[in-house]
Amino acid sequence: MGGWGDACRPQYEMVRRWLEAMPPDVVRLKRAEAEHLFRRIGITFAVYTEGGDPERLIPFDIIPRVLDASEWALLQRGLEQRVKALNAFLHDVYHDREIVRAGHVPEALVYGNPSFLPVMKGLEVPRRVYTHIAGIDMVRTGADEFYVLEDNCRTPSGVSYMIENREVMMRLFPELFARNLIEPVSHYPEQLLETLRTVAPRNCDHEPTVALLTPGSYNSAYYEHSFLADEMGVELVEGPDLFVEGDIVYMRTTSGPKRVDVIYRRIDDDYLDPRVFKPESVLGVPGLVDAYAKGNVTVANAVGAGIADDKAVYMYVPEMVRFYLGEEPILKNVPTWNCAKPDELSHVLDNLDQLVVKMVHGSGGYGMLVGPTASKAEREAFAAQLKARPHDYIAQPTLALSTCPTFVDSGVAPRHVDLRPFVLVGEEVNIVPGGLTRVALREGSLVVNSSQGGGTKDTWVLSPRSLSAGEGA
Questions:
Q1: Which of 70, 63, 65, 115 is nearest to 89 (CA)?
Q2: Distance between CA atoms of 65 and 370, rounded to whole angstroms?
Q3: 71 Ramachandran zone, left/alpha/beta (phi>0; psi -120 to 50)
Q4: Which strands sit side by side in the sheet containing 393-397, from one edge to the other?
Q5: Distance CA 97, CA 363 (A)
Q6: Would the pTM of this model clear 0.85, i.e. be above it?
Q7: Of all residues in the chain, what percent are helix, strand and coil, respectively (each to 5)?
Q8: Domains detected in the chain
Q9: pLDDT for 143-191, tens place per residue?
């Protein structure tokens, strides 16, 4: 089974030998079995912009992405450092504004940003943690360096796919896990629940009750919401299931109202409380922000945390690490041009055929231009958008991204991947070894988002105790 090339990383060598020894009909059978398992479990991702049935099965590749113990140790240190700095930044901009007053981050970028919510000014949150669950998107270059693409500090999704990918791989290929010591990921829901309990509100003098707030079954990530609530053993609730009385949040149950102390919310700020944000919202809970401000409930991630994952603010995260922690950043940013600056906009316009241009508030792979693969007409149309609204865009070079062996119709071929590790922050910082690997299944594509045709892989972190670590797995 070809397609691996001559530069197979050592940790993949055993996977290559195992797959090459597997008859092609068995490979086809295993791929079909994986699809059957995902359909039976009901793991789908909703796409509402293309017509037809919106529920899609995310393509799953049976070749895992493998990181050795030393690679993961570096990433783990860098991720913990980065998320600590992001939380320090969030507390600062809603309180003392030291980094702005020191001139390290432009005032207009923070306080003129729609993600900055004045209602949070001066509000104390438990342990000064604003982003309790962070998803940090990373890529590796052909030069073997890791870069952070963006920080997801609001409601990062994808962790259920990380866990289910591992479950499916263990069912399909138990012999691989018997041969190698691969760090587990199944304990993530347990760690998540413990993290949420450690950030109980200051007025909670009892065992905190946690609930997961979902916008409902029509949300694209509803499967994940129900999965995590079930795995944690907490209630999955929608806005009408909760009410506020005396600045305390209660949940409606068959045995009467029950106080809720920590809400893991999976809905956007604008819909959380119709008394404070969008008055027409039926997804949120009237009075929730007052209860939050009085110290009677914790909202995770915190209201207003979105300012930290703004793509323009992203450019200043290395400076945040230096300013708040007094350390040099372990993880690098991708070089970024801010189109709001005239000289940088001019550079971007002159080099559109070489750059990736993204909307500052965009997500899901939408609203972006991949210059090298765009047509001349597409670049010209995008240039007009840039000139009209330069503040809405940033640009980055198209890095020489590393690839991972992937099954495609023609066999095994290299495809670009990224990695989203999940960082939990409460009393301590915990990171489950691995994360969600997303793969761009279209040849030459750099867009890995599920909504744009990307797939996923299981992500293996080899234990330092693994006898196979030297020869790979």
A1: 115
A2: 25
A3: alpha
A4: 337-338, 393-397, 355-359, 369-370
A5: 27
A6: yes
A7: 35, 20, 40
A8: 1-182+408-473 (no CATH), 335-398 (3.30.1490.270)
A9: 678 999 999 999 999 999 999 999 999 999 898 887 778 999 999 999 9
